[in-house]
Amino acid sequence: MMAARRDEAVRHGAAPARRVVLFGLFGSGNSGNDASLEAMLGFLRRRPGIELTCICSAPEQVATRYGIRGVAIGARPAGGRLVEVADRLLGGLPRRAAGFGRAVLMASRADALIFPGTGILDDFGTGPFGLPLAVFGWCLGARLGGARIAFVSIGAGPIHHPLSRWLMGRAAAMAQYRSYRDTVSRDFMAGIGVAAGVAADGTVDVKADAEHDAVFPDLAFALPTPPVAAAPGPGLTVGLGVMGYYGWSHDLQAGAGIHRTYLDKLRRFTLWLLDQGCRVRLLTGDAGDRDTVAALAAALRAERPDLAADRLSAEPTADLQALMGQIAGTDLVVATRFHNIVAALKLGRPVLSIGYASKNDDLLAAMGLADFCQHIETLDVDRLIRQFTALRQGRAAHGRRIRARVAVYRRRLDEQDALLAARLPLAGRKEQGA
């Protein structure tokens, strides 16, 4: 049907629509990932004549929310229950083969394949035959079909499994445009052989464009910012971003001890905040965080049964705009998820990071907050209290510096929009050839 519409457009002298495919873990409840998609859609919808398809985790939710065609990243093998049983017995090989073949075929029909933001090039919670193979398959299909491939303001690394590293490295090497949201990501990919001028076959182009493999801010910095709310009363309101963290592999059984330790440390820190007279708002960034938030809130109320309702709040949010709406009513933020930190910085809020990857540290360093980071698995509560105290004392100066830096980020993203408009096939073919 798409081909018929294209032929009809050609017969009437119109420029056929460009077929742009977006790829990412969208629609599954992660507000940061969805914010990256939303920012890219805003850029693309300012250019007419584009047919959009989103390859994502939850196609129905993406189609409903954003009004574009959604296609699941994975594919189930056709053939009924017998085939499903065989698939399980063969370790999922038929399903993976079917998904890889479908990816190559669909991508070969696109004009552009775009990976908009997110930490798409790491293996957090996935093995080589999950996301790494899918990314490679889509890039291979796009390259075979002559589509242009763009990784835009992405996060990369770490990638621990050697096969995952090879698949994602080769996928990125096929792209005609790559930009990273931080220097850590760019340096990681350069370290595995993906850099400006390095082709998929390993040859080097010494005339590579210096703008290739540039660092541009996270795409979420391009989204509108809600108005800043007035403080709800005397004393500080602290936003505490909580994550359902079970270790890098996200194994709920093997990582149960990691999760318990993290939760207990947050409990101790939050009790200290409450004892200092602070109000605490528990924040989420993913639907998978809600159980951890509920467990933390229950533990706190068990120890402080007389705690007033307005001293501790926890309301789930569905997207980054809603999350920013909650952060707008806070004074300081302590968070684990990367886009909790991005949302706080967009609002000029000083942030203390309890991160699980170096992306948090790199972003805070760029904001002049390098001293306010810890790793989630080595979290020291006493040090966290000292860091929080120092952040609170300097919050006015920190806030001014953050707001100035965020304004620079917005201008940098405008510069990237101009680059993308020039380098990707985003106009009708007749117009492109004119």
UniProtKB/TrEMBL annotation:
In this chain the Polysaccharide pyruvyl transferase domain maps to: 30-357
UniProt cross-references to Pfam families, sorted A to Z: PS_pyruv_trans
The record's section on InterPro entries has: Polysacch_pyruvyl_Trfase
Q: Which PANTHER family match?
A: COLANIC ACID BIOSYNTHESIS PROTEIN WCAK
Q: What is this protein called?
A: Polysaccharide pyruvyl transferase WcaK-like protein
| Record lineage | Bacteria, Pseudomonadati, Pseudomonadota, Alphaproteobacteria, Rhodospirillales
